[in-house]
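Q: Could you predict the 3D structure of HIG1 domain family member 1A?
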Amino acid sequence: MSSNTDVSLSSYDEGQGSKFMRKAKEAPFVPIGMAGFAAIVAYGLYKLKSRGNTKMSVHLIHMRVAAQGFVVGAMTLGMGYSMYKEFWAKPKP
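A: Sure. Here are the predicted structure tokens for HIG1 domain family member 1A:
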């Protein structure tokens, strides 16, 4: 009985930092989206003290919408970039 052991073991030997760098080169807008999300959340937490008389739930909803909007924008730009590379920037044979 033969077993399918065609799995590349090199991916298991890869460290977390090198795996992240490889994935970032494959899809460069993913780390940008993650960084933007973290920045918006950090800014929202910083502004939490000086929100005035705004309700906490309204402040959190605004922060969530801004963070999700940034991530969706980064995903859209990444998809457009990959479509550009795939269809328009590809050299014609």
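Q: Anything worth pointing out?
A: The chain is about 65% helix and 0% strand.
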